[in-house]
Amino acid sequence: MRSRSSTLAGVTVLFTLLALLLPATASATAATAAAPGPPPVLTPHPREMSRIGADVHVPARVRLVVADGVDRPTRELVTSVLRHAGASRIQDGPGPKLTVTVGRITDTRVVRALRAAGGRVPGELPAEGYALAAGHGSVALAGADSDGTYYAAQTLRQLVSGHRTIASVSVADHPLMPLRGVIEGFYGSPWTHAERMDQLAFYGDVKMNTYIYAPKDDPYHREKWREPYPAAKLAELGELVRQATDHHVRFTFAVSPGNSICYSDPADIAALEAKLDAVYDLGVRSFSMPLDDISYTRWNCEADRATYGDPSSQAAAEAQSDLLNAVQKEFLDERADTRPLQMVPTEYGDVTDTAYKRVLRERLDARVEVMWTGTDVVPPHITVADAERVAAVWGRKVFVWDNYPVNDYGQAEGRLLLAPYDAREPGLHRQLSGLVLNPMNQAAASKVALFGGADFAWNDTGYDATRTWEAAARYLAGDGPGAHADRTAATVRSLLAFFDTQHLAPTFGAEPWQSQAPELAARLDRFRTAWEAGHERTALRSLRPYARLLATAPERIRAGVADPGFVADSAPWLDALSLWGSAFERTLDALGARLDGHDAEAARWFAEAAADAKLAGGIRTIPGETRPEGPVRIADGVLDTFIAEAAEAA
Question: Of 134, 154, 432, 585, which is most buried with the most CB atoms under 10 A?
């Protein structure tokens, strides 16, 4: 043993002397050559991404080369990213040690820059695709088109891994679904103008390209569809169109005349075209006509009975196809730069072939996009087989209107729906023309699920619900250059714990499609198992940190979340969680006191827990914000059950 120790000591001394004799440059080279870490987590998840080498340093001066075809929003985004990364002077002439080149993949200068940075030049880059490389002292962003170049810039934003640092990677990427986004199609209080402006910027961040304006409780969208928008409202719509354009989002204007239209009345057709024309003049080029949630067992005028016969689903389909075809051929085809009409059929939530669907399948213009909510209004899952069947029924790929995380129905009363976007099968992109999510009345809180929808629609084959859920928490926490890592991590932990208490995703039936508080439930199951095995103190010691996390999460979220809208949307639930978290801690205190034989103290802690739980149960949703209103729910069926059972056992 003594001999081996002596040998090891000699080797150590030898390596120490060699290290002292090596020049400083050799040490620097070794550091540079060190294996880089794993690629960063990006949302949406790229189809191809690999590490090139050591991260790229961002000096104070950066050269920005902008090729032809790069629009103002993309140029401004790249400039903003570089400034956040630490560049104080951005110039177009030679001199700086870092050059960033931005342009189209068809530009030879951009291709050379991509290769020089260590990137791969794709043989074919589909629409909205891009290639990006950061390495060897340069960065290159190459888009297949204007959208692709903008998306490359959004990826660059996420690659800024710290002050003066850009992750060194090569990316080749494009979306798998052509239409990806959100339909504001819920009942109840519509979003405010400020919320919509914020949402459109968010959609650009996550590479969504579609926003459908269809709020059910906007009277000019549905009940007063014949009437023109007031000037002030029309001005707001124009601002939204410009905001959408700046973030590479297609603003789709929807009008829903089905409750009162007379299909055979030329005056109604003229009123409809006038409504569409007014927003076309604002820059809208994409239009939708939802005919959902209406009756097709009655006509709105006698002229329709004379034209189409007695009311029936088949007659309704004939009238609807005539209307939709007229809008496509006589309005959209006559105007420049328009996109195919979108529609929501009256039968929108199943895969059953019917007379109604058969008529639309045979008569409807093949270009019209047909929307579908899945196998139910709120489907527990959507499979590739479901999509194949419905494509056969409608005679075309369908455009999914996914009713998640919308919370405007009875089973969602008192809930924020903050579970990850899930139970949609990889491979759906082969059968769908697109995917939009119907969000909650709470716009900012909807971002949690919308993050997942954006990721899935872009790259469903590489989708990971948990990864994207955690990325959504980091986004809300303001993770990025300048953020304090420890504070951000604590905020993310608090957000994920809060999301877990709002994990239940209901359907229109009795069974939810995502369970409530699975993380908390698993911890409570482990607690019960340990307790019943006689390891009571170990059980208490293991559960206390999570109880403390829940109790302090509201304060941490209010202080640490970068999105004030999220805090405002969540206010009643955060108030309730603070009380439920306190009740949780008091219950554990009571169990500990009872173990120690302090029955009076245990009774006092149980009483305090019950009082906190009662106060929490009295907190209600924000009046007028959500339909339906009611008491807010926090990990219901999980945390309240544990607290009640613990007190009863006493």
Answer: 134
User: Do the Cβ atoms of 428 and 387 come closer than 8 Å?
Assistant: yes
Average pLDDT over residues 637-648: 97
d(CA 398, CA 402): 12
The distance in angstroms from the start CA to the end CA of the chain is 60
In the set 71, 217, 293, 322, the catalytic residue is 293
Give the confidence band of 121 by pLDDT, cuts at 50, 70, 90: very high
Which helix or strand (DSSP H or E) is residue 435 part of? strand 432-437
| Rounded Cα–Cα distance for residues 382 and 345 (Å) | 18
Return d(Cα 28, Cα 50) in angstroms, integer. 24
Pairing between β-strand 89-91 and β-strand 169-173 as defined by DSSP bridges: unpaired
* Three-state secondary structure of 357-369: HHHHHHHCCCCCE
Average pLDDT over residues 639-646: 98
Based on its alpha-carbon atoms, the radius of gyration of the chain, rounded to whole angstroms, reads 29
In whole numbers, what is the pLDDT of the chain averaged over residues? Answer: 93
Three-state SS annotation for 371-427: EECCCCCCCCCECHHHHHHHHHHHCCCEEEEECCCCCCCHHHCCCCCCCCCCCECCC
Output the CA–CA distances (angstroms, integers) from residue 217 to 185, 213, 234, 255, 629, in the order listed.
Answer: 9, 11, 17, 12, 16
Res. 479 pLDDT band, cuts 50 70 90: confident
Report the C-alpha gap between 535 and 413 in whole angstroms. 39
DSSP string, 12-43: HHHHHHHHHHS-HHHHHHHHHHSPP-PPPP-S
Alpha carbon separation from 272 to 300, 343, 450 (Å, rounded)? 16, 15, 31
Which of 431, 401, 435, 437 has its CA nearest to residue 419?
Answer: 437
Residue 185 near residue 216, CB atoms below 8 Å: yes
Q: Which two tokens stand for residue 353?
A: 């072939």
Q: Is 386 one of the catalytic residues?
A: no
**Bigger pLDDT: 31 vs 426:** 426
Rounded distance between C-alpha atoms, residue 10 and residue 5, angstroms: 9
Query: Please, which pLDDT band fits residue 12 given cuts at 50, 70 and 90?
Result: very low
Reduced DSSP (H G I as helix, E B as strand, rest coil) percent helix, strand, coil of the chain, to 5: 45, 15, 40
Residue identified by tokens 């007659």 is 315
Using an 8 Å Cβ cutoff, are 403 and 438 in contact?
Answer: yes
